[in-house]
């Protein structure tokens, strides 16, 4: 049975009479619903909810988006992301920002038996700053390359929550490095992505932050051999990006 959080009529945003692409709240509301739609799709899959029992579709249909493609983990088969297509609102209008044709949404960690192992391994990758070696990142960056090459960098947005925020942030940085920045919406990114050393002025505190980080990494490495973990994932690294800058 679906929880209230997964049911759009209980947990969805209030109606927006006239969606305004210039309104940050409207845009954030849209992309957060798409991310929640990814969470709910995976819950639908795990609980075998199909047809009228499925709870995912209203999360994107509310904004007149359609599901274009699911992004699945190659190891556990879980749905960790999706590409959503803007059905009617991607045309540029006067005095408005350019709406996206497509939005890539990425969920965070789900601690269920079906997804916990792969999700936790990716969170450990974040701590060791090698998230880019995971198969999910490779798939996400390849999807971004495709849409940017086909429609331009303003036509694709990316959004993520928690673990998904880490993937989205890394993918956005890589695209920007190659002259193709995309609009990104990051919700509750992993704390290891926050530059804590830059947020404190005391040298003693900076040393404490570095020490705590190194101890954490060493402790995890003793429990889990990351070399073995990396062999489970796609280790091709970041595929070559050849795109025309905007």
TrEMBL record:
InterPro entries referenced in this protein's UniProt entry, alphabetically: Fungal_lipase-type (IPR002921)
Molecular-function GO terms, alphabetical: hydrolase activity
Domain Fungal lipase-type: 118-179
The keyword Manganese appears for this protein: no
Keywords: Hydrolase
Pfam families: Lipase_3
GO BP, sorted A to Z: lipid metabolic process
Superkingdom to which the source organism belongs: Eukaryota
Name under which the protein is recorded: Fungal lipase-like domain
């Amino acid at each position: 049975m679906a929880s209230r959080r997964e049911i759009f009529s209980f947990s969805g945003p209030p109606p927006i009479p006239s969606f305004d692409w210039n309104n940050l709240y409207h845009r954030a509301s849209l992309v957060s619903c798409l991310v929640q739609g990814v969470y709910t799709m995976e819950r639908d899959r795990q609980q075998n909810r199909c047809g009228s029992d499925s709870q995912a579709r209203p999360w994107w249909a509310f904004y007149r988006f359609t599901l274009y493609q699911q992004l699945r983990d190659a190891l556990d088969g879980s749905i960790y992301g999706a590409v959503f297509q803007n059905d009617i609102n991607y045309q540029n209008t006067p005095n408005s920002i350019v709406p996206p044709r497509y939005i890539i949404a990425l969920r965070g960690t789900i601690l269920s038996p079906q997804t916990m192992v792969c999700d936790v391994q990716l969170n450990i990758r974040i701590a060791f700053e090698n998230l880019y070696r995971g198969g999910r990142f490779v798939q996400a960056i390849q999807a971004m390359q495709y849409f940017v090459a086909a429609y331009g960098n303003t036509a694709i947005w990316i959004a993520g929550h928690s673990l998904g925020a880490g993937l989205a942030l890394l993918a956005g940085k890589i695209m920007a490095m190659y002259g193709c920045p995309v609009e990104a919406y990051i919700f509750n990114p992993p704390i290891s992505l926050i530059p804590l050393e830059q947020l404190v002025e005391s040298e003693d505190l900076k040393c404490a932050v570095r020490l705590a980080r190194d101890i954490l990494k060493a402790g995890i490495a003793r429990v889990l051999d990351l070399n073995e973990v990396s062999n489970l994932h796609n280790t091709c690294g970041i595929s070559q990006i050849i795109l025309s800058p905007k």
